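Throughout our pipeline, every protein is held as a single compact record rather than as scattered files. The record that follows is passed on verbatim for readers who wish to inspect the format.
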Amino acid sequence: MTILESLEMQRGMVMHVLEGGGFQVNGNNGFGERAAREEREEMLLRYVRQLEHRVEELSTEVKEEMSRNARLEKLLQERVTDKMNLSHTSGSS
């Protein structure tokens, strides 16, 4: 299972719980309802923390990829410049 699939599955579970499908309210005293609400909030907070962590990981990956791309772009420019210089040198001989 990919990270994205895992997050999608977790999102589905969180949404199910937030919509009230995951808990039974016990009695009319409000305690069960409050406990269910607190559990939903805790589950949502855990999910948000996981998303924040994944965003940080992806941000790091993007920065690393941008750095690699910049190095490759520089190498490409150097090769193009070298080929142009060689063609000018060989053309003037």
About this structure: The CA atoms of residues 40 and 60 lie 30 Å apart. The chain has a mean pLDDT of 81. The helical segments are 3-18, 31-92.
